Amino acid sequence: MRYLSQGSAFTSNIAYNVYELSVLQTILNENRVSTVKAMEAINLPCSDLLVRCRFEYQIQPCMELFEQSISYLGICCTFNGQNNFKFEWSSFTVHTGGLSLIVKPTHNFEYSTTYSRDVKLLIHKSVSYPSDLNVMKILSQQSESTIRIYSDVTRCSNEVKSLTFAERDCILPSEKTLRYFPRYAENNCNVECRIIQTIELCGCLPYNYFVTSSAPHPICNFTKIDCLVSNYLEIHESQMQQNGMCKCPPDCNAVSFDASMTKIPFTLSNFSVDNLYEGLDESQYVIAHISFGKQVYKELRRDLLINVIILASGLGGIYSLFIGMGVLTFFEIFYFLTFRLRAHYVRIRREHQVLCLKSRKIIVKEYKPKKLA
């Protein structure tokens, strides 16, 4: 059983024992147990981790609200990972709604990678892979935390969409496809760079990055942990971006999150008459209340600052300021110096030709002979 503690090296750069990894992989091979099945077996299932859940002031079964998923930390419990909730936005506020959780970490933390039994909370978009690039909060044991989420939405105008990628410096979802993710997102692109780098260095895909069943590469077994730990910094740090190996432009239309958290210690004597705390027999719990901090969000707009029309208007203002004339005045002067002057010249020339023709006319007078006396 203690050999299974080496599995934590899949998601970190902790020390490992090569002999124990070899023995563990041999045991798994003889019992025909895959790496994914082994990691699922040693991880705490969501049904045991989540004690009680309340959504919009209604106690609901936690497994109807959460589902098991994969993150960079391993197996996690995800809320609202799929678009199958019909939110009542008017009641989804700090005071009248939100999500409340009571979490009970495992008692057996002898082989834990940390010295505590805290719970990590990741906040991310449903289409993005949960990674260390997302907002993360630590929920401490024997405390009650209130997390308020704030979102910013960035949109781009049609004028910006009509520009080329080099001109707008952001990317549309239809302009780039990813190999391991169905939809482009800046975070997914960065994770895919890590996946590609891991495959190039170790020849396999870590189980916590197995995001699609169509991946042609095998999943790393426990004997590959040696390679994963040795190249951990090269895979996870910013060296790929510095070397130009990973180019992940930002999304033109994006959603970003931020969160604030307040927490207080609690004991059983501090519990209220709220039915959320009913039946709790000890204080070794993690309690969290998660909701949006505001009913509104900040929207940022990517728009075109200057085009031909705006440039002409701006130049007109500059001309008016420095030389005392606007663009319309400039075009009027140009018109009079070209078209009007030419028309005036043609008219004078025609009048001159008419005068010349009149001067050349022969005037004929009637001649009458004189009578002889």
TrEMBL record:
GO molecular function, one term: ligand-gated sodium channel activity
GO cellular component terms, A-Z: plasma membrane
Compartments where found: Membrane
Annotated InterPro entries: ENaC (IPR001873)
Topological relation to the membrane, as annotated: Multi-pass membrane protein
Pfam families: ASC
Keywords: Ion channel, Ion transport, Membrane, Sodium, Sodium channel, Sodium transport, Transmembrane, Transmembrane helix, Transport
Principal cellular location given in the protein's record: membrane
TM ranges: 304-337
Family: Belongs to the amiloride-sensitive sodium channel (TC 1.A.6) family.
The protein's name: Sodium channel protein Nach
Organism of provenance: Pseudolycoriella hygida
